[in-house]
């Protein structure tokens, strides 16, 4: 987990999000309503499972920090789309 980040801008600007793979950065990037669940899962994780828990939450934080992805997910949830095309949900995946 050393120094791995995803490329970024801030969440108000369309574009990729930079988020260090640290517990502090992940917690700060999560919506307030998810921070307690994150804390609880990290604290409850067996040491052998902790890297996986952190990776999982890092991925969620990256998704939630990109407004384009959030918009695509909302379109899917509202029924506007029956699925979210990969290029809509992860527009910078291949770059």
**Total number of helical segments?**
5
Task: Note the overall shape.
Answer: elongated
Rg from alpha-carbon coordinates? 14 Å
Topology order in helix (H) and strand (E) letters: HHHHH
As residue ranges, the low-confidence spans are 1-11
Number of DSSP E strands: 0
What is the first-to-last residue Cα distance?
21 Å
Q: Give me the secondary-structure category.
A: mainly alpha
Mean pLDDT: 79
Amount of beta strand: under 5%
Taking the sheet with the most strands, its summary is:
none
Fraction of residues in helices? 40-55%
Report on this structure.
The chain is 54% helix and 0% strand. The chain has helices at residues 23-29, 32-44, 50-65, 67-77, 86-89. The two termini are 21 Å apart.
List keywords for this structure.
disordered N terminus, elongated, 0% strand, mainly alpha, 95 residues, 5 helices
Q: Care to give the gist of this entry?
A:
By secondary structure, the protein is an all-alpha fold. It is built from 5 helices and no strands. Helix 1 packs parallel to helix 3 (50-65).
Question: What's the arrangement of secondary structure elements?
Answer:
Elements: H1 23-29, H2 32-44, H3 50-65, H4 67-77, H5 86-89
């Amino acid at each position: 987990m050393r120094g791995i980040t995803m490329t970024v801008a801030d969440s108000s600007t369309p574009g990729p999000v930079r988020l260090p793979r640290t517990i502090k950065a992940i917690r700060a990037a999560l919506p307030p309503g998810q921070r307690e669940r994150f804390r609880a899962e990290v604290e409850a994780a067996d040491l052998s499972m902790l890297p996986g828990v952190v990776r999982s939450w890092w991925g969620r934080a990256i998704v939630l920090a990109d407004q384009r992805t959030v918009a695509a997910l909302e379109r899917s949830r509202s029924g506007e789309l029956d699925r979210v095309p990969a290029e809509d949900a992860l527009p910078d995946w291949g770059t």
